[in-house]
Design brief:
This protein is mostly helical. It contains twelve helices and six strands. Its main location: membrane.
Amino acid sequence: MRCSPGSVLNLLRSGRMRFCSRRGKSRLPLWLRKIWAYMRLLVQSLCFNTLTDSDVVFDSIFEPVFWTVDYVTRWFGLVFVCLVVILTSSILVIAYMVLLPLVLNTYSPAWIAWHICYGHWNLIMIAFHYYKAAKTSPGYPPTEKNDRPFVSVCKKCIMPKPARTHHCGICNRCILKMDHHCPWLNNCVGHFNHRYFFSFCLFMTLGCVYCSISGRNLFLDAYSALERFKHLDLEKPGIPVTGMGLLIGLLPSGQTNFHTPAPSYTFKDRMIHKSIIYMWVLTSTVGVALGALTVWHAVLISRGETSIDRHINKKERQRLAAWGKVYRNPFNYGKLNNWKVFLGVEKRSHWVTRVLLPSGHPPYGDGLTWDIFPVRKDLIPV
């Protein structure tokens, strides 16, 4: 009997359908197949092209860890914001209810005017810049087609990336002139809110240092008072209980209570001293930590860099140094011009109206393109 090619093809098709139907009955659950497909993708990504290096391998291996950290940070952002508001509000309550009456009763009129004016100015600057930093969009590259120049394509967004634009895994989108994602703001720090973030750090540091220095003597007095209260508690006079009464808490025969005099301090006194100690410790700790962060960002601004730019520029310097060349940061316009571009200072009066007073003016440029020396050096003489 002759076997036609058509019959052989039909036989193979029927066998394949039977095999697939049997395999479909024993198919793994959907969630397990998704995990398996994801793991296969991670393994395949280790050798996806000839440009694979140690950084690509590291990112691929630790991708689940990065995803977990981004997920947790994204959902805990509101917790961090509430923590900032609660801690700052607690310091304000102590300042108005405890410290302000002491200042009004003990300081001279000149010092009272200084503390009230400086304290409220610092408070306004902190509140304004924190709100603007948390609520202002950092800036995003356009999603529609345009003729803007770009330097690369985001491998996660699959969209063109302008210069100094980077992808944020927590926000899950690209950010213009990205510096970092700040969990205390629950927002990315980018082109349009970088100045608000730095100003908040600066004025919060100044406020903490102000509270720490002006409250140092109050802290020492409060600490000494609490130690004195402890000694008074240990030295309370009274009728001793002896024998079995000491074990079971009985009083001597005919005695109904201890004849112990009232303490020389009240519960209010104790809470006032504890609140002063709490304020001094918190402001001193935050002042040191946040002050170090503020100084670091000030150094980066003086160099015309962001936190991410610093790592990129460091690698470029090392790469060109191997070729005997010197790398120059194209966004470094000089220290003074870097600060003028960052703060939006265009004339002398802006140092007051845009730096020392709350100002919502936008930053220089649109964050998509960057010019060389955009500020004339003769605007403000060095």
